[in-house]
Batch of 3 targets.
Target 1
Amino acid sequence: MTTSPTELQPDTGRDETRMRSVLRRAVLAARSPIPVQLLGRTLLRAALVGVAAGLIGSIFFFGVEVVQKFVLERLCGYVPLRAEGERITGEVGLTPFRWWLVWLMPALGALGAGLLSRSAPETRGGGADAIIEAFHSRRGYVRRRVPLLKALASILTLGFGGSGGREGPTMQMGGAIGSIIGQYLRVTDRERRILLVAGLAAGMAAVFRTPLGAALLAVEVLHRDDFETEALVPSVLASVVAYSVFVSIFGESTLFAHAAKYPFYPVHLPLYALLAVVVSLVASAFLTILRGVQSATKRIPIADWAKPAVGGLVLGVAAVPIVMIVGPQLGHEGMGLGILGGGYGAAQVAITGASWFPGGWRGVELLSLLGCAKIIATSLTVGSGGSAGDFGPSLVIGGIFGGAFGRTAQLLLHDPRIDPGAFALVGMGTLYGGLAHVPIASLVMVCELAGSYDLLVPLMLATGISFIALRHRSLYHAQRPSWRESPAHHDEFVNDVLRDIRVGDVLVKDRPFVVFARATPAVEVIHRVAAGGWQDVFPVLSEDKNVVGVITTEILRTVMQEPEISAFAIADDLMVPPIVVGEGEDVNAALEILLLHGARELVVVDDEGRIVGFLDEAEITRLYREATHGASPSTPKAS
């Protein structure tokens, strides 16, 4: 039985339709990067980091409070000042003040923390420096023992009266959790660093309760002059999750009580500018004393793990007389003044005052005394290697001196519009923002603490002044001036080097290559490609010899798996949009095109669209290697 051509036509049409569909899928697969999947993975990992950091931050926060209540309050009769948002457990009844225990407790806590640090020396000190250094120099790696040991060491140090904050330790614990999750998930170095930054933000957000400010701090604190912009979105998400975990356990509240509103008066801006200068001087003095204690501690001829106990002993000896002299005058024999522990209660007094707090110049004198005492106490604890943060005390010191400045202005100018609490809050952000080089994060944090953006303009002015005034002083040794000085961004620096090299100076010329016309049959394309040697990308030319598309090896593999396709297809069906670069472009732009398309080779064209040569990944790799080793890029030899 014979079959007419008319009867064969429908089958032929179906084959051609099927062939076109296969080619279309192959072309789309070759064209499409999948950023949504990468974004989804990053955000899910950041959420996981936020949950873990929120939980460990909550446990740590509770642990410090419980140990402090038992050791300092119940056992020693010490009555610490507390910020409004620190009250998470019931009050302890009045206990006789046992001064002979108070002077010893900071040393005992620091000694226990020092013993723990023998297994992880990186847990000594505030914690922020260690996690910043891990980001820059250790490819984001943190040992798995760090979160637990840091939590226990800091609970002992702070719960027994060490002068420091909870936030520095939680920054290190959160960053360590991000790193550890990245290690378990076997992510790249870059992704692990991002998760470390997200964990840093999450730890801060959980304890300090300023989720946006914490996310900004995490991306700002790593460099003096740059931001870690790639980590911003993961940091925001991790902060939100960690904050949500914390408030689900302890309830939603800001750390400090504050006025309902802080009206803005432009006439007060010169006062805020003067405040910034005063606070910058205080910050410089604080850093000088802190560095002095660190230098003196290094010279003590005992083991490093035991040195924090020496600082704790000196702290106890220095703090007890102040408490014994000033406390009874304020209402209770053992009343603490924020010298031991975080000291947020002293900052709370600077913001809102207290029933026992004296007015007039006596109030200014008391705040000035507390500020100086807190500088010395924090320097003794953190400077000797105690496991306590420097973030919290920096805010407290700024708040105390800001409150003293506001009361002074109020007394001198007799202006009822001056609110000392506003100056205390601005002083907080000004000191830490300038000393840690995080002006944006600090002003956002203070606005979150105040519950409004009423103080945004004074904060912008004051933090800007302190940022300039403290330009060459930094709270953190591990901070890098910019990403150019960071090993974490070495590749980006090399990319900058590649931007100075033109494609036309390094492309491979005078090498025979294969091109196709648009109508070239697929069978011929396959045979000629198989007979070729070095090409991975095959240009398709128009009648006027311009590149209109390229055929990649990925598409050819698809065609070869479907033999019947080659009977119908032509080069025009196989090609994708041209993967080309102009000879006047820089090599970094060429590298970006290669990465975008997942190609190994680029066609190089002149200004008229004519092929002048090829640039392959091997050549870019050679340039990369020469850039990293400081050699001058050389022109490749034709082969």
Note: The beta strands are 516-517, 537-541, 547-552, 580-582, 601-605, 611-616.
Target 2
Amino acid sequence: MGSGVQQADPTDHTEKWLKQAAQSLPQSDTTDFADADRGFLVELKPGVVTDADGAVVWDNDSFSYIQGTCPNSVHPSLWRQAQLMIKQGLYEVAPGFYQIRGLDLSNMTLVEGDTGVIVIDPLISTETAKAGLELYRQQRGDRPVTGVIYTHSHVDHFGGVMGVTTVEDVAAGRVPVLAPAGFVEHAVAENVFAGTAMARRAAYMYGAALPRSPRGQISAGLGMTTSTGTVSLIPPTKDITETGQEEVIDGVRIVFQMTPGTEAPSEMNFYFPDHRALCMAENATHTLHNILTLRGAVVRDAHVWSQYLTESITLFADKTDVAFASHHWPMWGTEKVTEWLALQRDTYAYLHDQTLRLLNRGYTGIEIAEMLRMPPALEKTWHTHGYYGSVSHDVKAIYQRYMGWFDGNPAHLWQHPPVEAGKRYVDAIGGADVLLAKARNAYDEGDYRWAVELLGHLVFADPDNVEAKALQADAFDQLGYGSESGTWRNFYLSGAYELRHGNFGTPTRTTSPSMAAALSVDQVFDAAAFLVNGPRAWDLHLVNDWVVTDENTTYRAELRNGVLVHHVVPPDFSGPAPDATFTLTRQTLIAVLAGGQDLTAAIQAGQITVAGDPAKLGRLTAVLDTPDPNFNIVTP
């Protein structure tokens, strides 16, 4: 076991587990390495991207240790996946089709048109997207960007847009921006409504604070990790609303397939009929994906996901020579593409259908996750392995989608929260010393799952118990070393890191001024409502009208019983008079209610005109909580 602040060495139990795992893998299939190298043109040297102040926002070279034989602290399947994903640079996918890989969590694809280049999914950060575009231009000339396509509403597919184009060029119509219907609503909602909690947990998921070493961050399964640069958003100028919709950008014909509710609430695949090329967004990659991502999200629909993949096969597969996605490397050849899509489809369908079968026999999510085994054909296929998702947590997510958090056992209906439960478990077992002894015995026997469960109760009952935290950290290390899923590994090792070194907070941010600027008025009021401290606002009753000048619309916001509600005020409205009326633009509304701008300063600057009592708004803002990006996870 480790010495408190040092990571634990892999135990004999862990090494045995990893050797057994290696024997079960389809090691003879090395096709992915040839495909990942195919079309390589040039890499970024050094593989480092910095921001305007010289701070590093991406460092692919820091993963240079991922080479050669798999160490005894990494699952061999995850090691192989990382070796494929650290390949970075510019790749030719097909004539006129290029990809930037290894410069962020996601890929950026560039499609040459008649006069310039269309950018698909401009990464997370403006800095990495700009570096990728410059690398492309070094090889293909200084082609202007003539279009942007967002495949879906996650930040790694739009955040770098201002690194490849400008608001001015988009507003002038020189650069159309296409996205699936509902894109802005879902992109903003995910990053604003629950953004603080998701970002904190994403730090665990992507291993943000972990050392870059064989005992630290290996990858996130979908990509190496996330960049930490400037996130931006330019709203779409053209919505894709239906399957079969055809658009022409810079002379390039594109046919779209809507896939809402799959990997994202707003997502689409699309086909290039004149090039026999298919973009699968993030609906088919080289991993089993998440039905519910560990950072948190709305549960996805595995049934719909599999159905849309069947539709992709039906619509496009027999006419496709190359298929590429927003992560990983492409697939070439009609037969190969068809089988890839079919196996991906079968994976989500099997997980969904078998979970439903078993829950209808009375099994709970946690039981089904232990029972369910994937078919041999899927086990022997690399791209259906759980590097990003996992069979275990995907099954539980499917159960949650249909049945919710409650498993039906009344003993689980009103359980004590972690601290109170921890105190009672420690007492029932016989005290801290007895529990520690039992946990050490579980550790020595290789039952790390039981060890961390026991120790979790003790840590929450007594967060100052140094021995409990040290032993739980060691057990987390072993579980991390044994994880095929990159996200599971990162969660375990991040938990161990915080137990040893303390809370590392949220190193990355997904919000930005341009993200906030995309909020609708409804979303601004909703975001404010989610911050109301209910008990502090119980006795407040406030009614304010907001005249949003650039929308020529008046909104009424009323706070009562700790609830902030809002609605549009119709022209013939005969309700009670407001306490105050504020006349302002949508951007000023965003700044005051969602951006923390001082109300008095905005009024003095002439940004807000007030009729009535302006102090009423101060009483509202006084009961809005500030989210905490540094909340604890492995300790109370």
Note: The chain has a mean pLDDT of 95.
Target 3
Amino acid sequence: MARHRSVIALALVSVASACSAGGPKTNAVLPGHRATMDAMGFVGVGRTEEGSIARGQTKSHLARLRAGHCYRVVAIAAGESVDLETAMYTADGARAAESTTSGRASSVAYCASSSGTFRFAVSARNGQGSYVFALWQRDDERSGDAASRGTCVNPLPLELGGRINGSLLTAQDNAGASCAAGRNPDVVHVLEIERRQRVQLVATGEGPRALFIRRNCAGAGTGAGTFEGPTLECSLPRDGAPARIDATLDPGRYYVFVESIGDGTRGAYTLTTNEAESPEAADLCARARTIEPGAVVHGSTENATDVLHGSCATSRFPGPDSTYMLTLREPSRVRASVESESRWDTGIYLRSTCADPESEVTCNDDADDRFHAQVVKTLAPGRYAVTVDGYSADARGPFTLQVETAPPAGSGVGSDACSDAATVSFAQRIEGDTFAARDDIALSCGGAGPDQVFRFNLPRRSLVRATLSESGVVNTDATIALGFVRGCTAGAPQPVGELACARGRVVDAILPAGTHHVVIDGATRDDYGRFAFTLDSQDAEPIEAACRDALPLQLNVRTQGTTVGRVDRLQASCGHGARSGDRAHTVSVSRRGRLIVDLRARGFDGVVSVRRACERQGTELACALEGEQDTARVSVDVEPGSYTVVVDGFDRNNIGAYELEARLE
């Protein structure tokens, strides 16, 4: 995702005088940028600077901003391979803003509520080379009466088939988006519809933003109390995707809002409109083909239109869709899977009444990747609409759709119980599918869903870890429990004892030599589907020795330590597994609270994690990497008891001295 950060240049910056003349690299990247900022109504402040930066480096710049003025701070690399990010900090070190894009150009738009000196940190994620650094201020006189334009009193006109380039820098709060929490600055546009028609709206730009439509936006003022009426459509995009609305509107006047969300960049945006014809949903549903359970259908949305929409994507699936009717004559588990054959972003949803969006019973956008989607649900007898849709307006093409059914209690599969558990090996990728499995075993942290059981032999006392794969797990919505059990033998439907259990991706425990079983269990009756996991083991003695050597960590006391001379015994969920030399500490808390641990690494990339049981990574509560000021911080809610704090290094061969401090809030 792109990230925009603020960059500022004034004469007090130490490198300004050396670069004020502007070298050839500066001159190569600035002319187009100056023209763009001038067209947006910005004027330069101070001198443009040029510096150099290497991968992993952070360069700081200081500048004083004035209250009531809006700024754009930019850093632009001379080389295509340099990947910049920028962050903005107040005088007391608090993070005030950051870019929402990264790449050759990184910028932050910021309106100052108070005057003061700010620090701007420019970092290179990748590449190295020279970059330029400049500050721009909004020219209110040249940009016109910005305070009154784009409000309920003076909305900006929007034409069908048109395109508007706007800015949220001086925007006010006119209305609240129903799909986003809080009240945020927005720009109001007015759209006149002469006949009932389908309208597509797309908003792109910097930072998180919402796009929504209202019928009324009235009042004498220009602030947050000037709107009336409910929100008709609302889109809150994810991961930098465009905000999209695809709606069929009756004749009349509509108000279209582009709103900056949360701490989103109040920068430029582009709003486009298109009109398209579409058949009524009832007509499409009446023509829908029937699909039988167990059938595989090859279809295409290439020449289809956009009629129906699903709830599980912020885009609401504006692409063309194809609908099939499924009849269930008895209660059934249902799994409907779609794969796009030409790698387009697909989705799938089921409704109990085809033309009624409120009747949606389940919806999925991505299953394993964006080219697959899958829904699983236990359904009552009836007739259901199964719709294959596109995540974006241009997401269309051929697809394969398969619908499977099974009895609500399952029909049985291999490795369904202790009596037929398959034997598996360590470091082997093990795949399974609980869609038709029965619920034979009730793990304490799962228990209500179908399960499968696998047997493994352990030659010596070891730390054993079962890890669910992030790829190849098609039912990504399922909540899965993993557990180790003993006494699971042929002819015994239930295990005698549970050795360890965890929801999520990992369960681990120190087990004695012998035969053991790992159970994959659904948390609820609808948590079933395909999965993959691996087993690995380590000799328990070195891990237990590392935990026996754990040093005490007192609350509110700075503790010095080092990982030099240590070996890798304890790993973490962040820092590429943190497979460097490590050191364990124990900290005790006497009351419920929030445990905060700060690690200050000295000359190495530090990682700090907190876990309940020292030997078991699966009990990890939090993990953090070294960030600004060579500090890594974890913050986690805890109950009274003893916890293990592990100091480690990023990936491999990262060791050094450190300072550790813990406190309870």
Note: The longest helix spans residues 24-39.
